[in-house]
Amino acid sequence: MRFxxxxxxxxxxxxxxxxxxxxxxxxxxxxxEQVVSTLTVTGQxxxxxxxxxxxxxxxxxxxxxxxxxxxxxxxxxxxxxVKFLRSRQVEQLQTTGIQLQPNYDYGNEQRxxxxxxxxxxxxxxxxxxxxxxxxxxxxxxxxxxxxxISFSASDEAVANAQKQALTKAVQDAQAQAxxxxxxxxxxxxxxxxxxxxxxxxxxxLIVQNAAFSDRAQAKVSTPIIGxxxxxxxxxxxxxxx
Length: 241
Hints:
The chain is of the alpha+beta class. Among the domains are: 38-48 and 157-200 and 235-240, no CATH class; 54-152, Alpha-Beta Plaits. The chain is built from 4 helices and 8 strands, in the order H-E-E-H-E-E-H-E-H-E-E-E. It has helices at 2-33, 67-87, 131-141, 155-183, and strands spanning 38-50, 53-64, 91-105, 112-127, 145-152, 190-198, 205-208, 228-240. The strands form 2 sheets. A 5-stranded antiparallel β-sheet has the order 3-4-2-5-7. A hairpin with a 6-residue loop joins strand 3 and strand 4. Helix 2 packs antiparallel against helix 3 (131-141). The longest helix is centred in the N-terminal third of the chain and has 32 residues, at 2-33.
């Protein structure tokens, strides 16, 4: 009886072992079949757009013997300039700097107060095509300096350019993958992952310390050319083959 019992248990263990092995083999085969070879490529795309807007910073600089004299004159010229700019309906007009400081002469190794210098600066934005005439008239209205000019495209143009740059980046990545796989006699099956590395808006084109001579008597408007901005994008594709 005991022998039959042990034999029965032994047969049970063998049968269960065979069943477990049979179940495990398809699982391992299935896992092996799910392994996919991949190729990773990164594409670049660039879209150029024309700048149509200009951000400009104008200033009024006055020198005089007393602080009161300088402050009074600079206030009058700045007020005249602000009224002119508002009449031209410029955008984002604001005061960006106010300075009043002593002016010294350091000749003969001595510091001597010779007067005061005052500077008021204003910034605003307008269409680039209108800038040339405006600069000339701003001088007549009281401006004595240009601190900076920067050119940029409209938000809508930048957004459209970002989409185009991304499209070009994807096409570039796919072209790279096709070239590699064809050289190896392989075929792309599917895109496993997509990663957008960047499609950042371009930085404004800046012209620093744009000097101008006495434009009050000018008979020809100052020519202003904005140029182009480049919107760049990068996309990484992982392609199964």
